[in-house]
């Protein structure tokens, strides 16, 4: 574990899946009290048993790929299934539940950076290429967590890495166990209490900068793209998930079946292009990043802004979690199964074209 505290924000990173173990706000020093903002588990065993992938790096692939396998340069690579006849999150030997190495740490005046690395051999779970992965977390003193992904392969292959954190910005309060030193440096020393007012994650206000969403087959693989207008998938203005799940648009049998099958939301949104902004000297701009979405707790007004250069974001409302409706996941990634349904949008990683992706969380 690596715990980083920066201006009231505490981030705990784990070598298991190069993941975010916890993100918390320090709300009191005496007694040491935190407000946990993401889904976490007391130990790695319970995390793996949950099947939630909470906070882990999804690698080599985020989401599902259909049973038809991976098509690369007119050659089909069958993939090992771990979700019925399909493959989920990179297959049975994915790196979400593997220990990564800490490659480096770096500390500046206003940031801390930790880089993890891992590798996979050619042919594992069907993916071609000897692949090497790097995940860097940069925690800045302005409440930002940036995740940068980099991967290389000695053969053409498909890589689609992301993060699988679940959010409830209302927070779950955690205090030190009795007798624990106030100088404890990991969140594992803390005892979780019940959420304030037991606020559901579905009460959070969500805005997604997307005009189109993918509908799904019954196996949760995308089937077709439709405009969000006039559907329960429209989050172009801030809207709580619970409000959209009770809207009149669910009178449409098509949408009602979509929500029923996913037990809420488990759908990919095609993000709008980034705004073109003028560069100013001395000011950081992230022109390649899209303002993908914002999530707001209507009670505390706490807000998460997510920026990314990924083409889509998958909204998952946690319907298949053991404790549903408490958290929602926002996964910046390619459209699931893009290699089979929209190959023209597929980015191939090869020796001359490494995989690159950035996800940036800003908590205010």
3D structure, described in words:
It is a single chain. With 364 residues, this protein is mainly beta. It has one domain (2-363): Beta-galactosidase, Chain A, domain 5 (Distorted Sandwich). 7% of the residues lie in helices and 43% in strands. It has four helices and 26 strands. It has helices spanning 44-50, 241-244, 253-262, 338-341; strands at 2-6, 9-14, 19-29, 32-38, 57-58, 64-65, 70-72, 75-77, 87-88, 101-107, 111-120, 131-140, 144-153, 162-163, 166-176, 190-195, 205-208, 210-216, 222-227, 239-240, 266-271, 290-296, 303-308, 312-316, 328-333, 355-363. The strands form five sheets. Strands 1, 2, 3, 4, 15, 16, 18, 19, 21, 24 and 25 form an eleven-stranded antiparallel beta sheet that branches. Strands 10-11-12-13-26-23-22-17-20 form a nine-stranded antiparallel beta sheet. It is globular. It starts with a strand and ends with a strand.
- Compute the gyration radius: what is it? 20 Å
Q: What fold name goes in the CATH topology slot?
A: Beta-galactosidase, Chain A, domain 5
Which structural class is indicated by helix and strand composition? mainly beta
Instruction: Estimate the global geometry from the Cα principal axes.
Output: globular
Mean pLDDT: 90
Hey, roughly how much beta strand do the residues contain? 35-45%
The percent range for helix content is under 10%
Identify low-pLDDT runs.
Answer: 177-196, 276-283
Any idea what the CATH architecture is? Answer: Distorted Sandwich
Order of helices and strands: EEEEHEEEEEEEEEEEEEEEEHHEEEEEHE
The major β-sheet equals: 11 strands, antiparallel
Number of helices: 4
Overall structural domain count: 1
Q: Given this structure, which CATH class is correct? A: Mainly Beta
| N- and C-termini, Cα separation | 25 Å
What is the strand tally? 26
């Amino acid at each position: 574990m690596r715990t980083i505290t920066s201006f009231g924000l505490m981030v705990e990173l784990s070598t298991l899946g190069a993941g975010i173990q916890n993100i918390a706000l320090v709300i009191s020093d005496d007694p040491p009290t935190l407000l946990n903002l993401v889904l976490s588990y007391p130990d790695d065993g319970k995390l793996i048993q949950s099947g939630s992938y909470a906070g882990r790096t999804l690698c080599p692939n985020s989401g599902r790929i259909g049973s038809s396998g991976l098509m690369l340069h007119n050659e089909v690579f069958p993939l090992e299934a771990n979700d019925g006849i399909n493959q989920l999150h990179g297959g049975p030997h994915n790196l979400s539940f593997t220990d990564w190495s800490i490659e480096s740490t770096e500390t500046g005046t206003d940031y801390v950076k930790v880089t993890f690395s891992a590798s996979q051999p050619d042919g594992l779970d069907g993916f071609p290429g000897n692949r090497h992965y790097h995940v860097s977390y940069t925690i800045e003193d302005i409440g930002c967590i940036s995740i940068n992904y980099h991967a290389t392969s000695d053969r053409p292959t498909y890589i689609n890495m992301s993060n699988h954190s679940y959010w409830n910005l209302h927070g779950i309060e955690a205090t030190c166990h009795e007798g624990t030193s106030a100088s404890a440096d990991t969140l594992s020393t803390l005892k979780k209490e019940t959420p304030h007012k037991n606020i559901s994650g579905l009460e959070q206000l969500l805005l997604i900068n997307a005009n189109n969403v993918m509908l799904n087959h019954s196996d949760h693989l995308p089937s077709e793209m439709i405009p969000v207008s006039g559907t329960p998938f429209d989050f172009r203005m801030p809207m709580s998930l619970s409000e959209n799940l009770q809207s009149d648009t669910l009178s449409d049998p098509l949408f009602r079946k979509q929500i029923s099958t996913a037990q809420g939301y488990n759908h990919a949104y095609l993000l709008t292009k980034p705004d073109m902004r003028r560069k100013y000297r001395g000011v950081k701009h992230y022109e390649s990043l899209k303002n993908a979405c914002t999530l707001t707790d209507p009670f505390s007004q706490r807000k998460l802004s997510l920026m990314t250069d990924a083409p889509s974001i998958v909204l998952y409302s946690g319907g298949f979690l053991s404790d549903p409706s408490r958290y929602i996941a926002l996964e910046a990634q390619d459209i699931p199964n893009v290699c089979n349904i929209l190959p023209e949008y597929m980015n191939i990683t090869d020796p001359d074209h490494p995989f690159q992706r950035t996800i940036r969380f800003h908590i205010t």
